[in-house]
UniProtKB/TrEMBL annotation:
Gene3D superfamilies (alphabetical): SGNH hydrolase
Organism annotation: Latilactobacillus fuchuensis DSM 14340 = JCM 11249
Protein name: SGNH hydrolase-type esterase domain-containing protein
Transmembrane segments: none
InterPro entries: Ester_Hydrolysis_Enzymes, SGNH_hydro, SGNH_hydro_sf
GO MF: phosphatidylcholine lysophospholipase activity
Residue stretches making up the SGNH hydrolase-type esterase domain: 8-188
């Protein structure tokens, strides 16, 4: 289908106000998919759960005419020490609970949007440590994303599962990232190619 309005809910990997790149992953997607309207809801430092500009609260800013929604998030919940919780949590105080609330509300309130959840590449340790305050690693939040997106039938594009994008690899981090967390221009292009392939594959599956 020909999308008309792309909205991205995200963090510093989406927030172009930080000037980490000159052409961002969604710029490439809008160009390749010929999407005329883009709404950027990226806020640097944002987490899914409270207290950092939480997406579980600000999802309501998603325009109602959005027909393609990308939620690129979760790595700050790991790095900024959101309690992980467990599958089935109903509280926004944990990652499992906040993500469940976020996806449930979007599915109910923005049912016309094709929704994709994007989890970040495997990161290095320059920006965030390998283990957070609660003793969890990035993989623990990645596994939570997989469980919750499956439960809500939201397509999950796991960049974490793409070793060719890993910022934990020093050589790739030098080529694709600024600090083993934020992608540079080359990183945004590489990410965009993976996302575009997933979008096109999913579109074909609809026919």
């Amino acid at each position: 289908m020909a999308y008309q309005h792309l909205t991205i809910l995200g963090d510093s990997i989406t927030d172009r106000r930080n000037h980490y790149a000159t052409k961002w992953y969604y710029d490439w997607l809008a160009e390749w998919q010929a999407i005329p309207k883009v709404t950027n809801l990226g806020i640097s430092g944002s987490t899914i759960a409270p207290p950092y500009d939480p997406m579980v609260q600000r999802w309501q800013a998603i325009p109602t005419d959005t027909d393609l929604l990308l939620i690129y998030a979760g790595v700050n919940d790991f790095g900024r020490d959101t309690p992980l919780g467990q599958f089935g949590d109903q509280t926004a105080a944990t990652f499992y609970g906040a993500l469940s609330q976020l996806l449930g509300r979007i599915k109910r309130q923005r049912p016309m949007a094709d929704c994709y959840f994007i989890s970040h590449v495997m990161i290095g340790t320059t920006f965030f440590p390998a283990v957070n305050h609660w003793g969890y690693r990035q993989i623990d939040y990645e596994q939570a994303i997989q469980k919750v997106t499956t439960a809500f039938a939201v397509a999950h594009i796991s960049l974490y599962q793409h070793p060719e994008l890993s910022f934990a690899n020093a050589g790739q981090a030098d080529r694709l990232s600024l600090d083993t967390l934020h992608p540079n221009d080359a990183g945004h292009l590489a990410i965009a190619k993976v996302l575009n392939l997933n979008l096109e594959t999913n579109e074909k599956d609809h026919f």
